[in-house]
Amino acid sequence: MSGKGVVMLCAASFLVGLLLSGRVTLLAPPSNAPSVRGSRIALFSDGCDQSRRLDESSPKDIMKEVSRTHLAIQSLDKSVSSLEMELAVERAKQNGGLGVSVPSRGRLPKAFVVIGINTAFSSKKRRDSLRDTWVPRGDRLRRLEKEKGVVAAATADFLRLDHVEGYHELSAKTRTYFATAVATWDADFYVKVDDDVHVNLGMLTNRLNKYRARSRVYIGCMKSGPVLSQKGVKYYEQEYWKFGDEGNKYFRHATGQIYAVSRDLASYISINQPILHRFANEDVSLGAWLLGLEVEHVDDRSLCCATPPDCEWKKQAGNVCAASFDWSCSGICKSVDRMRAIHSACGEGDGAVWSAAI
What we know:
The chain is of the alpha/beta class and 358 residues long. It has helices spanning 3-21, 47-56, 59-95, 124-131, 138-148, 170-184, 201-209, 263-272, 282-291, 310-316, 335-346, and strands at 110-118, 150-151, 186-194, 198-199, 217-223, 253-262, 296-299, 323-324. The protein folds into two domains: 3-26 and 42-95, no CATH class; 106-355, Spore Coat Polysaccharide Biosynthesis Protein SpsA, Chain A (Alpha-Beta Complex). The strands form two sheets. It has a six-stranded mixed beta sheet with strand order 2-1-3-6-5-7. Pfam families: DUF4094, Galactosyl_T.
């Protein structure tokens, strides 16, 4: 933005804060003013009385006013960011730079969060284990979407992607998922989760709701693993030389089992997907796409609890986990056999998602 634009935005934010705090009175002439023809606008109430009230306020009241003003500024910042992204989408459409078409948001179904469960053709039993535990079925799933704005998987609801399936194509699959999801739903958040991870939907939505006023948020369990340069090993990085000398680590990024991005970031991926580079590992690729942007990285450890007894103990202590899996297996080991037991020990209860603060 230009210097003039920054000044105008700051002034607008200040006035919005004053209006929301109740310190500004509109259409309120002094009581002793003589009657005049037409209407009269008093922008500010008496300055002396105003200063006196502020001076007499308790520190608690002042902090409350500061908090309200801060929230108003956050809301304004998100609105400006959303408008900037809308403009970028329209420019990309005109220039033919979109990997997929992104319709105007007014024509898309509204949602709070879209949860894409990454699965493979051969993983039917894994999908069944999810539908038998934390993923609602039938009417309950439709009610969840209608009342809570949570879109997740169900029987016969596969989101078909223009993509070639394969382990070494996961980065491309993730890129295509976000682009397709943005073109299908107008959501605040888009989540990617593997089909061998246990999720508590109520806790997940509560965690995401904390960041709803932010415009560019990347949420997950942040890590920085080693760059593997030896051919033949799992997670071998063919482009290891780009990350420095041998023995270096990757930059911080969310682990691939589950993570969330806000709408603006998903839109960014959609707009730029033809030129987003793919590294060997999907989670590293996503982290690289967002690393150079003005993005808030949120390290949320409730998204990577270990399986029982860890998540069970935390549940008993009142700290229900949003997601659980085994680090040793990059998911739940033998998830088809164990998902039901983990859900019983660490699940939040069927009613939690309906009382989630969304």
